[in-house]
């Protein structure tokens, strides 16, 4: 079990404004900055840059698609 799976939804806030590498269950890998987390839907938004003008490149569902963070 990966470390993020042991964390509760409120602990996901520790990842905000940090650069992460996400490996999804289908083995796709995404790298970027966590902008927001939503403990209700278990999702976070990931941006390739930490600039306000950067586009959000992925929305990840922490319970379903992510195998490691």
UniProtKB/TrEMBL annotation:
Biological processes per GO annotation: spliceosomal complex assembly; spliceosomal snRNP assembly
Cellular component GO terms held in the UniProt record: nucleus; SMN complex
Stretches of the chain forming a coiled coil according to its record: none
Pfam families given in the database record: Gemin6
InterPro entries: Gemin6 (IPR009422), Gemin6_Sm-like_dom (IPR046857)
Record domain Gem-associated protein 6 Sm-like: where: 1-58
Name of the molecule in the record: Gem-associated protein 6 Sm-like domain-containing protein
């Amino acid at each position: 079990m990966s470390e993020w799976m042991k964390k509760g939804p409120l602990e996901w806030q520790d990842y905000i404004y940090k650069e992460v590498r996400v490996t999804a269950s289908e083995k796709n890998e995404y790298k970027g900055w966590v902008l927001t987390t939503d403990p209700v839907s278990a999702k976070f938004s990931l941006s390739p840059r930490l600039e306000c003008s950067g586009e959000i490149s992925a929305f990840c569902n922490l319970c379903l698609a992510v195998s490691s963070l």
